[in-house]
Amino acid sequence: MSVYTILPPPPMNVKDDVSTNWKLFRQAWGYYVTATELNKKSKEVQAGALCSVMGLECVKVMNSLTTLSAEDKRDPGKILTALGNHFMLQKHLLFERVKFGFANQTEHETIDQYVVRLRQLAESCEFEGLCESLIRDRLIIGTRDSATRDRLLRERPVPGLTRCIEALRASELSRTHQEQLKDAQSKHDKTSAKQCRFCGTNHPYDRAKCPASGKTCFKCGKQGHFAAKCQEKNWVSSGPANKVHHTSATPGYAEGGESACESVSDSDESIFVTERVGVVSSNMAKSFFMVPLTFHTEYSPVITTQLDTGAICSAMSYTDLLNILQIGEVELDPPGGKIRLYDGRVVEPLGSYTFTVSLNSGSQCNISFDILEKAPWPIVDGNTCIKQGWISLGSDQFLHSLISEKYEPLSFDKLMRDFEDVFTGLGCLPGEYHIEIDPNIRPVQHTPRRVPVPLKTKLKEKIGEMEKEGIIIQETKPTNWISSLVAVQKPRKLRVCIDPRD
CA quadruple 109, 115, 116, 119: dihedral positive or negative? Predict the structure, then answer.
């Protein structure tokens, strides 16, 4: 016959939440008595076992109770009753309900763990018949999943506790699966990443996302690759390369307007403000200080750069960095801190890189650029611009008045009204063009092609419209040249042209 030992419950914790601790100890003691068949023994034996299990601190509490006589201490039932009255009297109902009301889901707590914690807190709140509904309410209020909360609040009829738990579990499981897929994809990308033969960096094969795509080689002048991967053998440096213009817009950069120069702190790290700044004028037009800066590298390219008086750090994109150096992978220095964009978003730079630059063959200076994942073009901060004399701020120049004119936001109606000539007529260029036909070419005369029945009405209307606008004229006399007509149905119109291939 196999023999096994059942461990007794842990001693009673007489500190912290003693009412909850007593409930748990009383429950564990009941299981222990049943499992060991201790209830079949005498009360004196049971009382001795209880006092041995409850711990010395709890025994001290029992000895201090005046309601227990020496005879009562031999009865486990009376001991449990007296201790229960002592510990449960220390519960503050209002405080227990306040704790329940402030119970929010923590960062690493799952929905199941959160529900268990709410049920434990609700046990000491004496909610009675409202327990399930109040737990549901606290669950909806305290969950970190705001999207599922909004969806449950829109449901009719009002969902119960079970429905809320199921919805939050499903959302939590979905997020877990998405994170697993992202991890798997990132591992796949790292595995499939090889050194690109166009830019020299390691990235998964995708020509459209290659940093050298659309860029000009400073060695041969051709597009689509960097100088480090150029196959041109005979090449001698002849001075600065052509300018590179950056015209794409990226979220995080304003299309003009004022910028606020400030420094804030986030987790004891420096956060810099980098924003584009424009010139305020009465007609709300915006202009930027764009200058050709020479970057003194192996190829000395001239890059169109913005002088930003509202920025307190210089920055450029990683793609621009690769385009300027054209040497493949680049080892970056640690960044100076985080960067706050004009729209309030905070981004973490990939690193920093120091260039030696000059403006209009002037004196050279070293500028440390924070390297971002995306940016429309390089910018130089205001302090550097003033220090190098690229921008001068005169102390005798004051703003005496600011004239404000009515500003109408850009809209479709405003575009149609301001540029009516662009959207009226065919948009012909000025002047006339004379076409001469080579007399040595033999004319061709095609017979009319058959037109599908569904297109006949539309084609007739289109030809009449073109004749009315003066694009074509009706020919009623014999002519040497007759070309075939081609009608193609497009999603929004019928396109008509000729077929002059022969």
Answer: positive
Return the residue matching tokens 């001795």: 48
Find out whether 323 and 306 touch, Cβ atoms under 8 Å.
Answer: no
Angle at 270 between CA 269 and CA 276, to 5 degrees: 140
State yes or no: cis peptide before 157, omega within 30 of 0.
yes
Torsion of CA 367, 370, 375, 376, to 10 degrees: 0
Query: Are the beta carbons of 88 and 117 closer than 8 angstroms?
Result: no
Quote the CA–CA distance of 220 and 232 in Å, as a whole number: 6
Q: What is the C-alpha radius of gyration for the chain, rounded to an integer number of angstroms?
A: 40
The mean-pLDDT minimum among 54-68, 178-192, 473-487 falls in: 178-192
3-state secondary structure of 128: helix
Residue 180 clears pLDDT 50, i.e. is over it:
yes
293-311 pLDDT, tens digit per residue, is 999 988 888 888 998 888 8
Q: Over the stretch 236-254, which tens digit does the pLDDT of each residue have?
A: 544 444 444 443 443 334 3
Cα separation values, 42 from 69, 81, 323, 425, Å? 19, 18, 90, 110
Q: Evaluate whether 347 touches 313 at the Cβ level (below 8 Å).
A: no
Decide if 175 contacts 152 (C-beta within 8 A): no
Question: b or e along 374-386 (b: 16 or more beta carbons within 10 Å of the residue's beta carbon)?
Answer: ebbbbbbbbebbe
Query: Where does 92-172 show beta strands of DSSP type E?
Result: none
Q: In what order do the strands lie in the sheet with 338-340?
A: 264-266, 269-273, 338-340, 346-347
Could you tell me which of 480, 426, 486 has the C-alpha nearest to residue 450? 486
Pairing state between β 338-340 and 269-273: parallel
- ∠ CA 12-17-22, nearest 5°, is 35
What does the DSSP assignment read for 383-432? HHHHHTTSS---TT---------------HHHHHHHTTTTSSS--PPSS-
Nearest Cα neighbor of 348 from 267, 434, 437 is: 267
Are residues 266 and 338 in contact, defined by beta-carbon separation less than 8 angstroms? yes
Asked if residues 377 and 320 have their Cβ atoms less than 8 Å apart, the reply is: yes
- Per residue in 30-63, pLDDT (tens digit) is 999 889 888 888 888 988 999 999 999 899 888 8
Q: How confident is the model at residue 354 (pLDDT cuts 50, 70, 90)?
A: very high
Burial (0-12, 13-18, 19+ Cβ within 10 Å), 218: buried
On the question of pLDDT at 480 being above 70, the answer is yes
